[in-house]
């Protein structure tokens, strides 16, 4: 079959090869069952949530070359030019206590940081609960985990070749950081393999973040724990303190002048950041 001409329409942003990804990822995987790449979609998370409602099995991966109604946490809009980033969601059905599922976005962040470092050499850090940051503190990626029909759909948006002009002032991309073109396919494969490796160990440990080693590795990649933070709460109030730890259920433990608070959600801003150790 001849190559798709669209694949080479922009040599700095080639289309992903769905068949090659499917073969490379599922050949030796005990988790990933399918990889689908679509040209355009409203939301990869919404599409997999609908599949979960229809009883779809764990291990489906959906990648969009262009997502037009993507959402981040707190229903923020997330958009990226076509083929400039990795927009991927996957469906999981973890057999762990419900409270432990708060670790899934943290597990995903660690896997993404590992993959980005392995493939591109970019040293990133994870900001609780769902961001991947470059060393200058600008955002490389966001993560959104949503419970759906007994499953969890995890979505990731990673800026790969997005230019400075296409990014908000708080954002950056792998190409901006490296000063070079970055191939999305190796990053995607490394990321999904890292997710599988960590996810299987975490599930085998019944979601125990200590026994699985996830808590230790998360702290090594974290730029939040040990930092002075300002947290905007869901009700709009703010909280100032020092992020001291992440607890057994993935909540951020913050020491404030009024006492210690465990946060299951909130929008965190680093006031003074501790560099990641990884």
Automatic annotation (TrEMBL):
GO terms for cellular component: cytoplasm. Residues 24-203 form the BPL/LPL catalytic domain. InterPro entries: aa-tRNA-synth_II/BPL/LPL (IPR045864), Biotin_CoA_COase_ligase (IPR004408), BPL_C (IPR003142), BPL_LPL_catalytic (IPR004143). Keywords: Biotin, Ligase. CDD domains: BPL (cd16442). Gene3D superfamilies: 2.30.30.100, Bira Bifunctional Protein, Domain 2. Pfam families: BPL_C, BPL_LplA_LipB. This is biotin--[biotin carboxyl-carrier protein] ligase. It comes from Blastococcus saxobsidens.
């Amino acid at each position: 079959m001849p190559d798709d001409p669209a694949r080479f329409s922009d040599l700095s942003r080639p289309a992903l090869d769905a068949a090659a990804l499917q073969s490379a990822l599922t050949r030796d995987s005990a988790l990933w069952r399918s990889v689908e790449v679509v040209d355009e979609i409203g939301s990869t998370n919404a599409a997999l949530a609908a599949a979960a409602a229809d009883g779809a099995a764990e291990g489906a991966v959906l990648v969009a070359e262009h997502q037009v109604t993507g959402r981040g946490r707190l229903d923020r809009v997330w958009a990226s030019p076509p083929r400039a980033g990795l927009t991927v969601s996957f469906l999981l059905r973890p057999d762990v206590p419900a409270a432990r599922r708060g670790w899934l976005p943290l597990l995903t962040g660690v896997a993404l940081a590992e993959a980005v470092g392995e493939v591109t050499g970019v040293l990133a850090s994870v900001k609780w609960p769902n961001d991947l940051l470059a060393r200058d503190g600008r955002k490389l990626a966001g993560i959104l985990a949503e419970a759906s029909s007994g499953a969890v759909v995890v979505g990731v948006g990673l800026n790969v070749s997005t230019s400075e002009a296409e990014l908000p002032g708080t954002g950056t991309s792998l190409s901006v950081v490296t000063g070079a073109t970055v191939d999305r396919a190796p990053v995607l494969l490394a990321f999904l393999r890292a997710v599988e490796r960590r996810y299987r160990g975490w599930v085998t440990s019944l979601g125990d973040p200590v026994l699985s080693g996830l808590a230790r590795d998360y702290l090594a990649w974290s730029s939040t724990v040990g930092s002075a933070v300002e947290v905007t709460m869901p009700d709009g109030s703010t909280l100032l303190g020092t992020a001291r730890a992440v607890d057994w259920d993935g909540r951020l433990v913050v020491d404030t002048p009024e006492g210690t608070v465990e946060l299951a959600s909130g929008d965190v801003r680093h006031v003074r950041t501790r560099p990641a150790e990884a």
